[in-house]
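protien #1 (seq + structre)
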Amino acid sequence: MPLFLLALALSVLLWMWLARRGSSLTRQCRWRLDRSGGADHYRCAACGAETDMPAGRAPRDCLRRSD
């Protein structure tokens, strides 16, 4: 039984790590689709960064310049 609980705990931790690893969006970035710049143009509501993405994809990374 203790071996089963250890395996269960490790699998939950592994799943949490893999789920978090795929997202690099930070709390400061709030990407909004801005159609005035094009069909797939995004603007960050927090810092004002802008980017164009391929169709059907949204930005996941913070593009804020480090000053």
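ok now protien #2
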Amino acid sequence: MDVPADERTDPTGAQPVPLTEPADGVPPVVADSSALRRAADALAGAEGPVAVDTERASGYRYSQRAYLVQLRREGAGTVLVDPIALGGRLDPLVEALEGTEWVLHAASQDLPCLAELGLTPSALFDTELAGRLAGFERVALGTLVELLLGYRLEKGHGAADWSRRPLPADWLNYAALDVELLVQLRDVLEEELRQQGKLEWALEEFDAARTAPLPKPRAEPWRRTSGIHRIRSTRQLAAVRSLWETRDALARERDLAPGRVLPDSALVDAATRNPADEAALLALPVFRGRAQRRMAGTWMGALRKAAALPRAELPETAQHHDGPPPANRWADKDPAAAARLAAARTALAEVAEANTLPVENLLLPDLVRRTCWQPPSDTSLDGVTAALREGGAREWQIGLTARALSEALAATPG
């Protein structure tokens, strides 16, 4: 019986070795143009793939910019770059990395902020995605490093405020460790994928991740306010929207995470209680603080704006979706579509299990839902193949799923 990849253990029973600091120590942070040129020259003259990571300040800052960029390449060692001190101008680094393969873990999280700095890879290896395709159920960087390389990484500062200056020494140590073993991990995962016959699949996925367009802004992002499910009337929804938009403008202006300007719970509380004036607003729990007392007029202005809206301008209770409704409503709205989806999910789960793949990596769930809600007029193998290709599926995904999906759709017409 095959042992699942994530359950493999070292037959010697050896314990992972704690890795508490980089082998070559923590380098000084590159924070001026001359140091950047020296670092870029070192990286350009080195060999092999380049390990890349970034640190952001999510939860502290409005922007998703990189506050530190970490790189490591054989022959150059580790480089820590402060893009803030450099004014976001990393041209020497852009030139040095041209034509190199980048190794990132969960690349989709880092590529947008790197692109803001003019840094885009010519080739990519994503160790998290590689781990998923290789069948590992747990694909955090520390987990894979421990399982495959035998080291336990020092962790603990990923959620820190990386906009802070100067950066503490232990934070820089943590940041350097994130790229210390990334290339070695890449090599082990590449061999694992090759042995499983999945390397070509992975290369398609890496290229798709590398060339993916930047995410589009969400329609009506205010509807993601935590606790909004407690809101029942459209007038209250308008109040949440008005408060959210006011907060968002302030957060953007101050470059603060919106929740640090005013928490979601306060938006929902104010919309639900509908205070008559500033005094009533300031009686609500979150608004009693000194910072919110200074902003009381701003928040009341947002509430009054929502209260004055004509009925025609109130938001609808439910958000319009570009696509099928939530799957849990299909049985009532379209029983035939619900049957198609159930058959498709069963068939795809079998394919995923046979190939030791997460079903969500086998085929995007949204593409499966769209195909089952409004199937192609031609549900033959050729018709489904064309529909999947038009929907953005990669060739390896089509090769594994088109026949199973075609049979599922043909067996449950509607």
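The chain has three domains: 5-211, 221-313, 327-411.
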